[in-house]
Amino acid sequence: MAAKSPVAPNSPATPGAKPAARSPRRRAREFVLQGLYQWQVSGNDEAAIEAHLGDTEGFDKADRDFFVGLLRGALAQRESLQERLQVYLDRPFAELSPIEACVLLAGAFELKNHPQTPYGVIINESIELAKGYGGTDGHKYVNGVLDKLAASLRPAEVEAKRAARSRSR
């Protein structure tokens, strides 16, 4: 799965600039995206995906437990996650680009099942994945959909953040 943009994910945008350090969780999310993409495009099962990605360069720097939990969870809950997401989509889930569909599945799973991670972090990580691997404006679509999903899954957290923003103005 290659990036569509001329600048690869986390590569310097300007000559001489250093790439941003990627945390083990960021790396895990990137591998989850690759795994979900493999599942969607080729139909590989979890075991084959995990074995293949486990041998991929850089996987040793990813948070393996987080990767496994996110990949397996998103695949196990894909039908219910797709139903939740569909409410906020402008077309059937099956008509989304494979990258945006996979980013949305992973983001939705994390929003639903990882309340210890702030929703803003999950959305920002999803946006970065969509920017790095998706179409030109796919990150905007991902942002809009996950923002609406977060408001329905985590209303108190979203409202508290909005209230804090309005107080700081």
Automatic annotation (TrEMBL):
Residues 26-150 form the NusB/RsmB/TIM44 domain. Coiled coil: none annotated. It holds the Pfam family NusB. Residues 1-26 are annotated as: Disordered. InterPro entries: NusB-like_sf (IPR035926), NusB_fam (IPR011605), NusB_RsmB_TIM44 (IPR006027). Belongs to the NusB family. This is Transcription antitermination protein NusB.
